Amino acid sequence: MKFEDLENAWSSQPTPLPAVDFAALQRATWPEMRRRTRFLRYELGGAVFVLIAYPLLSVANYLYHRPANALLFWGNVAVHVAGWIAVLGYTLRRLRRHRALLRESAGSVRSFATVSLEATAAEMRENRLALALTPLVFGLAWLSGYARHPAGYTAEAFATQTVIVAAILLPLIGAVWRHHRRYLAPRKEQLQDLLRDLP
Amino acid sequence: MPDTPEALFAAIQREHPGLIMRIVQAFAPAPGERDDLYQEILLALWQAIPQFGDRSKLSTYVYRVALNCALNWQRSQRRYRDKLQNFARMPAESDPDLPPQVRARLQWLYARIHELPPVDRSLILLSLDRLDYEAIAEITGMSASNVGVRLHRIKQRLAAAAAEITHEI
């Protein structure tokens, strides 16, 4: 068999694009796009909600029950707000990367793979940073507990708070690490291979 | 230039029949995966409509979006299949109206294409669709000379494999 025979067979494929059900495509597109960005929306919504609710609740708390040490109280609020601003910034960066990928989807294979690799590598860096900052979250929780009740912050309160924060945080860390190991790392390798193969 | 999704898909069907299906068949070997990749590509084309400007040809746009989608498609991600509405189904792999010999040759060719690395697979697909080196370079982001060298090697490999077949298919 010659290569020309294969080329002729290829050209003879009478394969028209089957009819697309546009109504179904339209119905599927929006929920599917929403599903794919749901974690981004949850994070964004959560960060905005906390940034609005937390200072308001702190002011109400301050007015209702004046703390013994106002400086410690507002310092604690400021540290928490700064932390949530960082979370908001991180989410906005992820959203920007997601949009950059959409913009580049009609770009060349090389440019799309480059943008995808940058996005994947950035997400991996941020995940590693987030995991490295885990002790800071515990520190913030302890600071918060102490700032609210400096006199009543016993070893028991400290232990209870640690257990609660750990119970919330550990499944999250597990999920991030699983995503990192099972999805991001192989994807990064796949994209690096693809770009290496594009001279 | 088509400015609505319906017009765009009609233009693809009219001007480039079978383009998406050939890419799907080259990248998704198992029949169960073809519907997934096919739907992914349609979604990607739908999403990329704002990026379809006057500067690019329709074929370049479709090849770019479809290849980017196929090259980045991950089988592990297809678990959502049950959640996603099936808005389009791939037709049967080979047209029953084709002569058996042509069908056998196509089957053999698709099997060899599956064995190629992703970039080589994309290059031979584009070449078999009779795109010139410049057009392939524009789609892939490679230089035209590199495309020529790579395609020459791929075709040589395929021709050697085809020559080994002594019985007629």
Description of the molecule:
The complex is a heterodimer of chains A (199) and B (169). Chain A is mostly helical and 199 residues long. Helices cover 84% and strands 0% of the residues of chain A. Chain B is an all-alpha fold. Chain B has two domains: 1-93, Orthogonal Bundle (Rna Polymerase Sigma Factor, Chain: A); 94-169, Arc Repressor Mutant, subunit A (Orthogonal Bundle). Chain B has helices at residues 5-15, 19-27, 31-47, 58-72, 100-115, 118-128, 133-140, 144-163. In chain B, helix 3 packs across helix 4. The chains are: A mainly alpha (199), B mainly alpha (169). Chains A and B meet through helix 1, helix 2, helix 5 and helix 7 of A and helix 1, helix 2, helix 3, helix 4 and helix 5 of B.
Q: Return the average pLDDT of chain A rounded to an integer.
A: 86
Low-confidence stretches of chain A: none
Q: How would the global form of chain A be characterised?
A: elongated
Quickly give the structural class of chain B: mainly alpha
The string of secondary-structure elements of chain A, in order, is HHHHHHH
Helices and strands, with pairings:
The complex is a heterodimer of chains A (199) and B (169).
Chain A: H1 3-11, H2 22-36, H3 38-64, H4 70-104, H5 109-132, H6 134-148, H7 155-196
Chain B: H1 5-15, H2 19-27, H3 31-47, H4 58-72, H5 100-115, H6 118-128, H7 133-140, H8 144-163
Helix pairs in contact in B: 2-3, 2-4, 2-6, 3-4, 4-7, 6-8, 7-8
Describe this structure in a few short sentences.
The complex is a heterodimer of chains A (199) and B (169). Chain A is mainly alpha-helical.
Sum up the structure in keywords.
heterodimer; A: 199 residues; mainly alpha; 0% strand; B: 169 residues; Rna Polymerase Sigma Factor, Chain: A; Arc Repressor Mutant, subunit A; globular
